[in-house]
Amino acid sequence: MRILRLITIVWVALRFGLDEFFLGHERVRALRWLVKTTLFWRNLSEPRAVRLRQALEALGPIFVKFGQMLSTRRDLMPPDIADELARLQDRVPPFPAGLVRTTLQRVYGRPVEQVFAQFEAEPVASASMAQVHFAVLQDGTEAAVKVLRPGIGAVIEHDLGLLEAGALLVEKLFADGPRLHPREVVAEFRKTLADELDLMREASNCSQLRRNFEDSELLIVPEVYWDYCEPEVMVMERMKGVPISQIDTLRAMGVDIPRLAMAGVEIFFTQVFRDTFFHADMHPGNIQVNARGQYIALDFGIMGTLTEVDKNYLAQNFLAFFQRDYRAVAQAHVDAGWTPPDTRVDEFEAAIRAVCEPVFDRPLKEISFGKVLLRLFQTSRRFNMEIQPQLVLLQKTLLNIEGLGRQLDPDLDLWKTAKPFLERWMNEQVGWRGAIRSIKQEAPRWAVLLPQLPRLAHAYLGHNRSADLAALSRQLAAAQARQQKILALIALLLAILAVLAGYSLFRH
């Protein structure tokens, strides 16, 4: 089946003329005449950007997600391609209304009319994994109903199989393959896609994020209506806002766009460093803005988490970057084991400085983060730095945030916006506030443990005494067993030697 899927991918690429992206390179110029001769029948009248979007749609969810990410990187993509790929964010061709009703009736075990007072057959948004319909519950509550695409799991499984095979080839055939951990990265991708296929998990993600920002003036998260949620269907509060990509409409509403861009940065860092639970699919199709200038989060299928170790490491690195303390950055990488222990910190420091120093004190519109990332990748390869698969989602989200910030306010200074937040967070973590918070968190445990300490100490000492005797007895028994095995082995060797000696005498 994977071979058939690979053939399908190649066929779709050729049918939509995507070979022109490859054949445009001078090194393969000689192949152009062969392609034109053998594929003369193709209709390539549509612009290249339209054909690229159509090909990604035809290939399915994984390729659509790739196009969504590219659409936010207008510094890397030509304008015509970025504009066309933006259609993938919430305008993927929907599946028929009949299939939607079939799914709902199967899930709920009764007709749609008995579940909802009203249900709009026309979807309001259609994405790679699911589509959304507006509805009204029986009590008159307005809701949004998200329905999973039928049969999407099998398509994803085939594509993941191809990705796993490709990752194995990269790891085996390329010198940098093992350092990049491609199979671990694909495994992380598989996990996130599996989470997206379970809308009950997405509903729980939504509920958690709503609880984290319950009192926030920056971000609004819809309420989940749990009585209507199933693995294939998620029902939540209907949110009313304007897509964040419609900047002219937001300005007409009186929204302060530069303030909105700064709020987006603060929301991201709050999710990562305060909650260690962040929205990892923040492309414009998943974000709206209301009249008060508040963000509205949508689509919670991909959420990222960080361990305390990862969180503290990242915070220290961000602060070191903002303070231009490149030695601290280099030393942190060595201490974390991400670079070999024999790495010369001074050389690593100089390499990082050469990449990052030109970035600071410049507005976002003058910075190509794509080039910065490329140079950082080249630096990491030089020092044999290992890619951390658990941070792939965070890296992807950073790219989305930067792309979104570029669209909202090209003059946004990402560094100056983030630095005060991270400094405040670090002070709360390692300063006196952090110490008080730790005491408060541990106090209930101490209250339970302290009265039990005498009894536990007595039991521990008594247990240890008997445990020591038992351990000594086991050691003696083991020593005796070893002695018996050695004696038996010696006897066996002597018997073998005796037989050999007798055999030798018999021959003579």
From TrEMBL:
The active site is at D281 (proton acceptor). Coiled coil: none annotated. GO terms for biological process: regulation of ubiquinone biosynthetic process; ubiquinone biosynthetic process. Pathway: Cofactor biosynthesis; ubiquinone biosynthesis [regulation]. One of its GO terms (molecular function) is protein kinase activity. It is a single-pass membrane protein. It is found in: Cell membrane. Is probably a protein kinase regulator of UbiI activity which is involved in aerobic coenzyme Q (ubiquinone) biosynthesis. Belongs to the ABC1 family. UbiB subfamily. This is Probable protein kinase UbiB. It comes from Sulfuriferula plumbiphila.
